[in-house]
Every structure is written in C-alpha cells, then in structure tokens.
Amino acid sequence: xxxxxxxxxxxxxxxxxxxxxxxxxxxxxxxxxxxxxxxxxxxxxxxxxxxxxxxxxxxxxxxxxxxxxxxxxxxxxxxxxxxxxxxxxxxxxxxxxxxxxxxxxxxxxxxxxxxxxxxxxxxxxxxxxxxxxxxxxxxxxxxxxxxxxxxxxxxxxxxxxxxxxxxxxxxxxxxxxxxxxxxxxxxxxxxxxxxxxxxxxxxxxxxxxxxxxxxxxxxxxxxxxx
Length: 226
Description:
The protein has 226 residues and is an alpha+beta fold. It has one domain (2-225). The protein contains 4 helices and 10 strands. The protein has helices at residues 2-14, 30-47, 96-122, 128-136, and strands at 51-60, 63-74, 80-89, 139-144, 150-157, 165-171, 177-186, 189-199, 205-214, 219-225. A 10-stranded antiparallel sheet has the order 3-2-1-10-9-8-7-6-5-4. The longest helix is centred in the middle third of the chain and has 27 residues, at 96-122. Residues 1-10, 16-25 and 92-101 have low confidence and may be disordered.
C-alpha cells in the first residue's frame, strides 16, 4: 500500500505548508489573515532545512493492516522526498478464497484513501484566497492551549463541503498553527481529521500527530512525525 501511505504523508505535509503572499482587498479580519499567511510562508521555508521520520499506522476493523516508517526531507529542487525505512504489512488470512477477499478489500481501502486525499487537501487552505475566505467568514475567539499559551480559535461551517466543520487554532503571538480539526463526509461516510502541532526551539512548527478516522468503514490512520 505504498501509494496509499505516500498520499497520506503528502496530506500531513500540506497541513503545515505555506501559501504565497499576494495583495488582497480589504476584508474582515484581514490583519489576522495576513499574519497567518506570513507565518505559514516563514514556516514552509524553514521546514525545507529539516529531515524527519514519519510513522504511519493503518488500522481497519480493529486490526493493524499496514505500518510504515519513512525518512522525509526536501531535495535541492524543493520537492519532498520520502525514503521507506520499515514496512510491516498486516498478515492476510489463510485459505485461497479468504486471502483473495482480504486482498481485494485492502486494494479498495487503498483507493478509498487516495480518493479521500483530494477532499482533505482542500482543508489545508493551500492558497491566499482560501485562507482569507475562511478567516473572513468566521468568528475569532481567544483561548488557551493545553500548555497555557494564548491561542486564537476559528470555527467555520460549509468550508469545503455542505455541512462540514473546520476548526483552526493558531498561536496568538506567532500565528503558527497549533491544532486543526475537520468533520466532513466523503461518499456518505463521516470523516474526522485531528492534527496536533508542536513547535521546536528554532520556531519550526509541524504536525506531530495526525489522526484520520472513518467510523463507517472502521478505518483509522495515525501519523506521528519526529
């Protein structure tokens, strides 16, 4: 399931990447939007100087189907590179028929996750316009992160798909992302994504944990970066 997990790695990376700056018309909360855009741009440039490991665990029907560990970095051309360090596939059942059915289900799950990526990508707010559209239409509230630091919290509905909910929390001082939560549907299935970010002493912020849950398919994908 290499394509499946590589696709998810790209999703995780996009959650922390920046969008290029551009001049925009006056809109509500424009100042906060511009600070978030600038913070994401700075973080993206800094991220390209780092390498990290990414551990992905795919679980379905309560059983681990695939566990992979990648070394991730950026090449001189700025393109993300992934090197597979470890691969542990879940054991297929014995018997020709049962094994064939399990393999077919695994392939269907792979295609489902690949297709789901296109939807999740849109919640990364990958462009200036997407950031501004979201922030200009949401109420911003102050709050505290688990470590006690001040954050700005934004929640919007119908951001990408009808009936969805998108929550974004950023640092009130650096405007770097602290937490993302998505509740949406795909092919009639409820999908939730939760990303928790951490900041290194250098200031680099990255998604340390990303959890994708599809209860209707008893499907779970957990990514841990270090």
